[in-house]
Specification:
This protein has 231 residues and is mostly beta strands. Helix content is 12%, strand content 63%. The chain starts with a helix and ends with a strand. Strands 1, 2, 3, 4, 5, 6, 7, 8, 9, 10, 11, 12, 13 and 14 form a 14-stranded antiparallel sheet that branches.
Length: 231
């Protein structure tokens, strides 16, 4: 009985250690890491680059937390917008700031927005085909070209539909493909501008999201993928 108890204790310890190591392998959790995501338009032309810089990695209870900045630049390298966000990882489950999944729409590029707190999309440690994932939602308010405005953003119907290998200029990964629906509602003065899009992303366990694509009314609207990772 003592040997069995000792074996179980060792097994649990090993699982906990592996879970902690899983968090460290995500590019979101690499202190001082820089991740470049290139944005392509519907025709496959480079439209912009999103550069994420991990500022610090710390502990909040059992979770590992990182703070990052995001800088959106046009095709010529001119900064369009910038912002801040957080990542969390607890026992191998990654929680990604929803700002990361905002589509690259022209209406959003000149907006100076602020949000109260952070909203996250969760990715369980053990993904599997056919799995449904939790929805996410958040609200922001701010100013665009001198006009006050607000933004409501929802991600729904997240489903793991299968496994695919993804190769980009930044590397090659075995990924789970996750599909979902996006709904944005932008309110400015007396106008309400709704935007509904379908989306898919490729998530590499132990590393992170490596590619996303969007479509509107059944037609491709563009995609974004990792083109460089500096650790």
């Amino acid at each position: 009985m003592k040997k069995i108890s000792f074996f179980i204790a060792c097994l649990l310890l090993t699982v906990n250690v592996l879970s902690a190591q899983d968090c460290k392998n995500y590019y979101y959790m690499l202190d001082n890491a820089e991740v470049e995501m290139t944005v392509f338009d519907a025709k496959g032309n480079t439209a912009a680059k999103n550069v994420y810089n991990v500022l610090s990695v710390s502990k909040e209870g059992a979770a590992s937390v990182s703070d990052f900045t995001s800088t959106l630049k046009d095709a010529k390298g001119k900064t369009i917008s910038s912002g801040k966000g957080k990542f969390k990882c607890d026992g191998g489950e990654i929680m990604i700031d929803m700002k990361m999944s905002l589509p690259n729409l022209p209406q959003l590029q000149n907006m100076k927005m602020q949000s109260e707190g952070n909203a996250f999309l969760n990715y369980p440690a053990n993904l599997k085909e056919g799995q449904s994932l939790p929805d996410g939602a958040f609200e922001m308010s701010g100013n665009a070209n001198g006009m006050d405005m607000s933004l409501q953003y929802k991600v729904t119907d997240r489903k793991v539909i299968g496994k695919e290998k993804v190769t980009t200029a930044g590397g090659s990964w075995d990924c789970y493909k996750i599909t979902y629906n996006m709904n944005l509602s932008m309110k400015m003065m007396s106008m309400n501008i709704p935007v509904d899009m379908a989306a898919a992303e490729w998530f590499a366990p132990g590393f992170g999201v490596v590619k996303t694509e969007t479509s509107k009314d059944g037609k491709p609207a563009g995609h974004m993928e990792i083109t460089h990772v500096k650790k």
